[in-house]
Amino acid sequence: MALWNSRFKKSFDKGALKFSASLDVDGKLYNEDIDGSKAHVKMLMKQKIVSSNDGNAILKALEEIRKEISSGKLKFDWQKEDIHSLIEERLVDKIGERGKRLHTARSRNDQVALDERLYMRKEIANLVKLTKIFQRTLLKQAQQHKDTIVSGYTHLQRAQPLLFAHHLIAYVSMLDRDVERLNDCMKRANNSPLGAAALAGTTLPIDREYTAKLLGMNSVIVNSLDAVADRDVVIELIGACATIMMHLSRFSEEMVLWSSQEFSFANIDDSFATGSSLMPQKKNPDIAELIRGKVGRVYGSLFAILTIMKSLPLAYNRDMQEDKVHLLEAVDTTKDSLIMASELLKNTKFDKKRFEKELDGDLLLATDLVDYLVRKQVPFRKAHEIIGEIVATCVDSNKKLNGLTIAQYKQFSTKFEEDIFKLLTSRTSVKNKLSLGSTSPAEVEKQLQFWKKKLK
Fold first, then answer.
1. pLDDT digit string (tens) for 80-104?
2. Where are the domains of the chain?
């Protein structure tokens, strides 16, 4: 019989029970459910609401049930409705009437809210760990490519030369903000709703702070109504996952571009590429594409949980049962994607000589010529106009910037001297950058050392 069925004259319709059952999802939280129940029982014993004999019997049986579930001995049956019902029913089977004391001063409302927070606490730590692993993988590649010249892009058009290490460190930096968001989320996830009961608390003399302490949580959520009605932290964690996935998707898009024949910059190892069932020559960057595609799952989870919560009156509503499927989906997809992004990057080689010669004299060095004129006291807007005219001339004559003579340059401005040709290499362009955090070798080295120290 269902835990809530005592006041009903009829059994719950089987079709309705199957529709409402959540064991296939919340069954994954059995460890958290047992951990929460054990803390609750210890508190009941301390407060002398449950005797030591009964409490210890419950604690022992709960550990036995944990082993039964983990070994597969205790099978999940959707007719048990949810993980809380399955565990409690098995507990009563094992120790009889004493098992019925487990749920004293507790509702499934505060129970499930606690399970989710214990799960989030564990998975936030895992997400932080995996994000840092990917950061270190990026940093290792950056260290290997601190002399490799590539083109930087805006609007996917060539913009200015960069060190490839600088490009990779940009991802390290954005992922660091992801870690900050996860750690910040942890502060709110690690608070206990247990003891809020259904919504109004309980008349029994429980000690909420004690259960929170036993579970290693920061504090309790004081307002009992808010404790069971809130899913803000679920939304927050899924949102953090969505941002991580957005960053991984941007990285994956670049891997797809770089591995194309047009770029010919990245060579993904055969063990991380696939072929075509029709075209024998194909080598496809499927892992990068799948990471890019899976972002839709996490975005979907975020939109789903926001939609679920948007019109719910306080406190608990059964709609909220649907939050777990989206929480687990978002977390699992993000973890898997972080793992695969790291492995993909580890198994990719980049051509150090691909771009440098091609970029020497290229129009992407035009900004260096603008700066040259500015140093000659030409106003920036005037310098920009002059170089724009030179670029137009190069385009019309199909020449690079180093393809014009000094005489041709002087037709645009008498400020030009022979020394401009020293500027028209990609490596000089990179080396001459002065600003903090720029792509110059000196600044990139500082960034490498900073992140190596921080991620050690």
1. 889 999 999 999 999 999 999 999 9
2. 5-104, 109-142+149-354, 357-454
To the query of whether residue 151 is one of the catalytic residues in this protein, the response is no
Angle at 384 between CA 382 and CA 387, to 5 degrees: 110
Q: Residue 157 forms beta bridges with which residues?
A: 154
Amino acid at 4: W
Chain segment 247-270, per-residue pLDDT in tens: 999 999 999 999 999 999 999 999
Q: Which of these is catalytic: 51, 264, 276, 397?
A: 276
CATH architecture of the domain 5-104 equals Orthogonal Bundle (1.10)
- The mean pLDDT value for 54-79 works out to 95
**CATH class label, 109-142+149-354:** mainly alpha
Q: Tell me, yes or no, if 84 is annotated catalytic.
A: no
3 band by pLDDT with thresholds 50, 70 and 90 = low
User: Beta 266-268 vs 348-350: how paired, if at all?
Assistant: antiparallel
Set 6, 71, 155, 435: catalytic member: 155
What is the helix, strand, coil percentage profile of the chain, to 5?
65, 5, 30
Distance CA 95, CA 412 (A): 94
Q: How far apart are CA 375 and CA 141, in angstroms?
A: 36
288-299 pLDDT, tens digit per residue, is 999 999 999 999
